[in-house]
Specification:
With about 120 residues, the protein is α/β, with parallel strands linked by helices. It has four helices and five strands, in the order αββαβαβαβ. Strands 2-1-5-3-4 form a five-stranded parallel beta sheet. This is Response regulator receiver domain-containing protein.
Length: about 120
């Protein structure tokens, strides 16, 4: 639902690129999961509004399979208030956070610094 490129296009590009296909992706959407048919596997799917406990549990599960140092999350959302909400949930949890306001910006960020996890 993002302008220019929606989250599904970003997910498609991430999973088709050999450098980014292994980045775990968590989808946050206003659409009910039951109505979405994704051809790509994702770590989890949340319908907004997000529940902090559920999001943290998923991130901790994903982080356990990664290197122990700081885990960097790329938050992609066209709504600044939604990105700020995720920041407020994660600030005290030891995650590094990168922001993108849309798909094009997300791709540009990933070309410079590859995140460990992405929320779309």
């Amino acid at each position: 639902m993002m302008p220019g490129q929606d989250g599904w296009n970003v997910l498609d590009k991430l999973k088709k690129d050999s450098h980014t296909r292994d980045i775990p992706v968590i989808i946050t959407s206003i659409l009910d999961k039951g109505k979405i048919d994704s051809m790509w596997a994702v770590e989890d799917y949340f319908v907004k509004p997000l529940d902090k406990t559920d999001l943290i549990e998923t991130l901790e599960r994903v982080r356990k399979s990664m290197k122990p140092e700081e885990t960097t999350i790329l938050v992609i959302d066209d709504e600044e208030k939604d990105r700020e909400l995720i920041h407020s949930m994660l600030d005290s949890e030891g995650f590094g956070i990168l922001d993108a306001s849309g798909g094009k910006e997300a791709i540009e960020i990933i070309q410079k610094k590859q995140p460990d996890i992405s929320t779309v």
